[in-house]
Amino acid sequence: MRNYGRTFSFSGIPDTNGYRALCWKLLLGYLSPKRSSWSETLGQKRKLYSQFVNEMVVPPGQDKAECVDHPLSEGPDSAWSTFFKDNEFLLQIDKDVRRLYPDISFFQQPTEFPCDLVVNSKGERRLHQRVVPSVFSSANVERKGLGMTKINLITKRSVENYEAMDEGQEAHWEVVQRILFIYAKLNPGQGYVQGMNEIIGPIYYIMASDPSAEQRENAEADTFFCFTALMSEIRDFFIKTLDDSEGGIKFMMAKLTNMVKEKAPEIHQKLKEQELYPQYYSFRWLTLLLSQEFSLPDVVRIWDTVFADDNRFDFLIDVCCSMIVSLEDQILNNDFASNVKLLQNYPPTDINLILSKAVELRL
Questions:
Q1: 108, 241, 306, 342: most buried, per Cβ within 10 A?
Q2: CB atoms closer than 10 angstroms to residue 269
Q3: pLDDT at 189
Q4: What's the confidence (pLDDT) of residue 125?
Q5: pLDDT in tens, 261-288
Q6: How far is CA 362 from CA 64, 228, 262, 315, in A?
Q7: Alpha carbons 138 and 133: distance in angstroms, whole number
Q8: Which residues 6+ apart lie within 8 Å of 275 measured at CB?
């Protein structure tokens, strides 16, 4: 994307005319800067995603070649065995997407463009019917190598679950569930990691809110490829074995600590004396790109700037540092418990002031 386009996005993309959805597609690399290629790219990618849905969101036995397969088979080539293994991570996806952004009604509402293959399948292709959320506890989910992760500070979301729609309809959260399921199937080395739902939520919201009916109709496919592109950049955050790598979460937290030490030495010393380590608050900030710290409109505004910056995750550090510096008076006068609560439950603020301060801090 040309520099003027990045500058335009960095300052905040207008909420009108579908500008944000288009800019995010460009900034995340889903579309190239060459406008003449957009139509072909979108056509090819959307067709490819339809194939993914057709091939992956299907129960065993639909293919005649699988009819000889027994549900109790444990062989590596058994479709039933794969089905039950898939359900293990589908349980977590189902639980997470049912409580996505409960402060707005969007994800509970029906999409105007349900997937016909799924909603008219008499329930056979509806993923939520494959799992029973009540039997799964997310409190014990841990990262094991390339497996799932425990983001132990995800505590701010509602415990209420969204209801599924009747035959012929589906809610937006069901669409998000399908995207995450397909992503996990296509990325078995990483799979689904708790917290990915918080990353995909804002992307889908923007794509599915586009004023163009054509764009909204293809929001599911476009979200999948934008999410995949973003995850290719931040996947190290979700993989425990890469925590200490240059792109790993421990490395990022250390960068934030060093920046606070340089820009706000009194705050750094206070937190050090209180033994208030960055993993108590910034693990969630960085891993989830601040998606749980602010309202959805503010998250979207932050992402405009982060996506537009050439060194986008360096700027994410700047934003986190700005958040800490903006609370200087409170941090310096608080005890340990009050500071933990303050940083884990960031107070309402003008996000534009945070972003402006972040720009100042990087100079």
A1: 306
A2: 13
A3: 85
A4: 82
A5: 999 999 999 999 999 999 999 999 999 9
A6: 60, 29, 11, 8
A7: 10
A8: 336
Q: Which two tokens stand for residue 124?
A: 């056979």
Q: Nearest-CA neighbor of 284 among 191, 159, 149?
A: 149
**CA dihedral over 341, 344, 347, 348, signed as positive or negative:** negative
Q: Kindly state the average pLDDT of the residues 224-234.
A: 95
What would the two tokens of residue 83 be?
């089905």
Amino acid letter, 223: T
Whole-number pLDDT of residue 74: 55
Question: 311 to each of 180, 291, 306, how far by Cα in Å?
Answer: 27, 19, 8
Q: Residue 241: which residues within 8 A CB-CB, separation 6 or more?
A: 145, 146
Q: What is the pTM assigned to this prediction? A: 0.86
What is the rounded CA–CA span in Å between residue 320 and residue 226?
24
Residue 86: predicted pLDDT? 85
CB 172 within 8 A of CB 107: yes
Q: At residue 97, what are phi and psi to the nearest 5 degrees?
A: -75, -20
Q: What pLDDT does residue 160 have? A: 53
- In angstroms, the CA 341 to CA 153 distance is 11
CB atoms within 10 A of CB 310: 9
Mean pLDDT of the chain: 85
When pLDDT is cut at 50, 70 and 90, the band that residue 150 belongs to is very low
Count of other CB atoms within 10 angstroms of residue 43: 11
Question: Hey, what are 330's tokens?
Answer: 């409170």
| CB 156 within 8 Å of CB 206 | no
